[in-house]
Design goal:
It is a single chain. The chain is an alpha/beta fold. It contains ten helices and 14 strands. Strands 3-2-1-4-5-6-11 form a seven-stranded parallel β-sheet, with helices on both faces. Helix 1 crosses helix 7, helix 2 runs parallel beside helix 4 and helix 6 packs across helix 10. The longest helix is centred in the first third of the chain and has 22 residues. It is globular.
Length: 329
């Protein structure tokens, strides 16, 4: 690209996935505008583009930003993500994940944004009826978090029909790993994701790793999940953006590798990568944890030309381990 860089608003771009996407955008010649209230994101994670502090709940601040900057597209990562918290505090999740997304869409339409990329989730499927899970699978979320993502997907479809807003909704399975250059990584508070919990236990930051469920109908009794390296996930976002900007149709796509690893397999790999013991405390199953979640992901490969670069569990864990050792924020 030459001349003035096209601006992309990255809502929630100071978080884990958003910060990696901002990096991918900047390196492709876009100018990321990171809009984040830093309630769960990190100022130190904004290494690419400008940080504009603000909340989607602050309509006036959002209006002023969009009118001044006129981004050509919006990528939306500004959601609350802890499933158990969504069950305890559903209104908080519906307000942030749903109502504030409506505000963002209203303002995006008002300034003529040309593309909208939405961070969705495999939680929209609920308990899967088939593995791998295709995009056409019945949508029956079993918690407010998943329901909030599904409601937004439906609103996006309606906005496309009514106003012609082009969008891609990306249903993540399990984002994992860290920036191979070591500058960005996963830092949630509280941390609820498998790989950081394992690695923090290896570092001695946690006394034990709690393994929930050992009697699932899987080969080793633990849950199976589809892990996609965050750099590959960021690249899917970039491909989706380029697809829409070139006039491509609106899409709903799974983001995964199409195969999974059990919790025990990830545990053993973490032991090899770290060279350390990881004490395990076996606990009963958690309500709502399906035995297996694996994406059917041929659609992203076929329609966007996505080809994974980092489909390797050991590489995923190695990058995450280096991040945990040298954590910057």
């Amino acid at each position: 690209m030459t001349g003035r860089k096209p601006k992309i608003l990255v809502a929630g771009g100071a978080g884990y996935i958003g910060s990696h996407v901002a990096k991918a955008l900047a390196r492709k010649g876009f100018e990321p505008l990171v809009y984040d209230d830093l309630s769960s994101g990190h100022r130190e994670a904004v290494l690419y583009g400008r940080l504009i502090e603000g909340s989607l709940a602050n309509r006036k601040r959002l209006q002023a930003l969009l009118e001044a900057e006129r981004p050509i597209a919006i990528m939306h990562f500004a959601a609350f993500i802890v499933v158990s918290e969504s069950v305890s505090h559903p209104l908080r999740y519906y307000r942030n994940n749903l109502a504030e997304t409506i505000t963002l869409l209203e303002e995006a339409l008002r300034v003529g944004v040309k593309a909208f990329i939405f961070s969705s989730s495999a939680a929209v499927y609920g308990n899967p009826e088939q593995i791998p899970i295709p995009e056409e699978h019945p949508l029956r979320p079993i918690n407010p978090y998943g329901a909030s993502k599904l409601f937004v997907e439906r609103i996006l479809s309606d906005c496309h029909q009514a106003y012609g807003l082009p969008y891609v909704s990306l249903r993540y399975f399990n984002a994992a790993g860290a920036d191979p250059e070591g500058h960005l990584g996963e830092a949630h508070e509280p941390e609820t994701h498998l790989i950081p919990l394992l690695l923090q236990t290896a570092l001695g930051k946690r006394r034990t790793f709690q393994l929930y469920g050992t009697d699932y109908p899987t080969p080793d009794g633990s849950c199976i999940r589809d892990f996609i390296h965050v750099e590959d996930l960021a690249r899917v976002h970039l491909l989706a953006l380029e697809h829409l900007l070139s006039g491509g149709e609106s899409l709903v796509l799974n983001c995964g590798y199409g195969h999974g690893y059990s919790v025990r397999e990830v545990l053993e790999c973490a032991k090899r990568v770290t060279g350390r013991s990881i004490p395990v405390e076996e606990r009963p199953r958690r309500p709502g944890d399906p035995p297996e979640l694996v994406a059917a992901c041929d659609k992203a490969r076929r329609l966007l030309g996505f080809s994974p670069r980092f489909d390797d569990l050991e590489f995923i864990l190695r990058t995450a381990w280096q991040w945990e050792i040298n954590r910057r924020y």
